[in-house]
From TrEMBL:
<dbReference type="InterPro" id="IPR029063">
    <property type="entry name" value="SAM-dependent_MTases_sf"/>
</dbReference>
<keyword id="KW-0808">Transferase</keyword>
<dbReference type="Pfam" id="PF06325">
    <property type="entry name" value="PrmA"/>
</dbReference>
<dbReference type="GO" id="GO:0032259">
    <property type="term" value="P:methylation"/>
</dbReference>
<dbReference type="InterPro" id="IPR050078">
    <property type="entry name" value="Ribosomal_L11_MeTrfase_PrmA"/>
</dbReference>
<dbReference type="GO" id="GO:0008168">
    <property type="term" value="F:methyltransferase activity"/>
</dbReference>
<keyword id="KW-0489">Methyltransferase</keyword>
<protein>
    <submittedName>
        <fullName>Ribosomal RNA small subunit methyltransferase C</fullName>
    </submittedName>
</protein>
Amino acid sequence: MTPSRDPLGFIRANTRLRPVPYAPEIRLHVADEATELWQKTEDELEEIGLPPPFWAFAWAGGQALARYILDHPETVAGKRLLDFASGSGLVAIAAAKAGAAHVLASDLDAFALAAIPLNAAENGVADRITATGDDLIGRVGPFDGVLAADIFYERDLAGAVGAWLDGLQAQGTLVLIGDPGRSYLPRDRLEAIATYAVPVTRSLEDAEIKQSSVWRFR
């Protein structure tokens, strides 16, 4: 069966369950090496130019945001949250563990939509996380806050998401962003509320330690 018909089987076959380096309270199904997994995905789907397997790694911004939430559970406790572009579900899982009432984890990648509930179940929070493939940019609810990590890597996406999140915070919605300073992060509109030295995979981030911050709009 191809991964497109059995993404869960593909994930189980090509990842291992490991603790997140900077948030070891959480375990995720992650890949050993990015390029090999990317190639396997394209080969088995017989398609080139697919997006990177964001769902298969604990990225720097996501680790930072997860750490912040776990260390400051009062930030999310009792809230209904959206984890935008959730990938592996790392940040959603951290929020659920910290006491969020419910987390809607959104992603457009079919593999992520299989990985999120799998990882949530491994961490005992499947009952408080729902995965959706809907495009939620521009939505205003029903949620009390939005969590977003590692999303400012592409110009058009960054512009649309930045304007949306800025507007939500202006209306009183909690907005927290995890980011190591990617190319299109709107630094002039943000302030860092915490910074961490996050261990990462050199093949992904071109470094072994990445300074990563949790941001909110000014």
